[in-house]
């Protein structure tokens, strides 16, 4: 059993148990969102994007390094009572490009989408360049072009490759 998953019988069921275990996990949520197929070890990045930290009072379950047919190991985050905004999903795609987002209402999956990497993200990340126009008092929303291995500020050209979650501005 996975002690950290927070639910009773979500633990891996060994080889071939992936799909049934998967369905079980989803059925445990009443209303909310399941973010599935996060690359193993990246659940904390997703939580940071969503502003969920040790001070949260949201009901969140996290499965880390769960066996997965597709990814080898994956992380799963379940959030009760919250549906994600498009902006949040776009930023999640930057740290978890294989993720799928399941919207749950009354225990049913009413919507299931793979995340798509956008070509640009607006108003979500902050530019680390202090001289960038977006960091001054002007009401200029940030815009970053999404690269294969990071993002580039469309105003000053600064590239962020590591620790994107340090630059989240939501
Ligand atoms: Zn900039």
UniProtKB/TrEMBL annotation:
Biased composition (Acidic residues): 1-18
Membrane-crossing segments per the record: none
Region (Disordered) location: 1-21
Cellular component terms (Gene Ontology): aspartate carbamoyltransferase complex
Gene Ontology BP annotations: 'de novo' pyrimidine nucleobase biosynthetic process; pyrimidine nucleotide biosynthetic process
All residue ranges annotated as the Aspartate carbamoyltransferase regulatory subunit C-terminal domain in the record: 121-162
Cofactor note text: Binds 1 zinc ion per subunit.
SUPFAM superfamilies given in the database record: Aspartate carbamoyltransferase, Regulatory-chain, C-terminal domain, Aspartate carbamoyltransferase, Regulatory-chain, N-terminal domain
Keywords attached to this entry: Metal-binding, Pyrimidine biosynthesis, Transferase, Zinc
Cofactor(s) listed in the protein's UniProt record: Zn(2+)
The keyword Chaperone is assigned to this record: no
Matches recorded under InterPro entries: Asp_carbamoyltransf_reg_N, Asp_carbamoylTrfase_reg, Asp_carbamoyltrfase_reg_C, Asp_carbatrfase_reg_C_sf, Asp_carbatrfase_reg_N_sf
Pfam families hit by this protein: PyrI (PF01948), PyrI_C (PF02748)
Aspartate carbamoyltransferase regulatory subunit N-terminal domain mapped to chain residues: 24-116
Residues engaged in binding Zn(2+): 127, 132, 153, 156
UniProt GO MF annotations: metal ion binding; transferase activity
PANTHER family: ASPARTATE CARBAMOYLTRANSFERASE REGULATORY CHAIN
Functional description taken from the UniProt entry: Involved in allosteric regulation of aspartate carbamoyltransferase.
Family: Belongs to the PyrI family.
NCBIfam families listed in its UniProt record: ATCase_reg
Summary of subunit composition and partner proteins: Contains catalytic and regulatory chains.
Name this protein carries in UniProt: Aspartate carbamoyltransferase regulatory chain
Organism (species): Halococcus thailandensis JCM 13552
Organism placement in taxonomy: Archaea, Methanobacteriati, Methanobacteriota, Stenosarchaea group, Halobacteria
């Amino acid at each position: 059993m996975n002690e950290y998953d927070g639910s009773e019988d979500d633990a891996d069921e060994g080889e071939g148990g992936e799909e049934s275990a998967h369905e079980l996990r989803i059925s445990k949520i009443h209303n909310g969102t399941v973010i599935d197929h996060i690359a193993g070890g990246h659940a904390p990045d997703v939580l940071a994007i969503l502003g969920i930290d040790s001070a949260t009072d949201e009901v969140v379950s996290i499965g880390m390094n769960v066996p997965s047919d597709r990814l080898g190991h994956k992380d799963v985050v379940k959030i009760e009572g919250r549906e994600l905004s498009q902006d949040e999903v776009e930023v999640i795609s930057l740290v978890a490009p294989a993720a799928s987002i399941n919207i749950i209402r009354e225990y049913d999956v009413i919507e299931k989408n793979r995340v798509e990497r956008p070509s640009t993200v607006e108003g979500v990340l902050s530019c680390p360049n202090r001289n960038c126009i977006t960091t001054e008092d002007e009401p200029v929303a940030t815009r970053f072009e999404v690269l294969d291995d990071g993002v580039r500020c469309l105003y000053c050209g600064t590239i962020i490759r590591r620790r994107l979650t340090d630059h989240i501005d939501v």
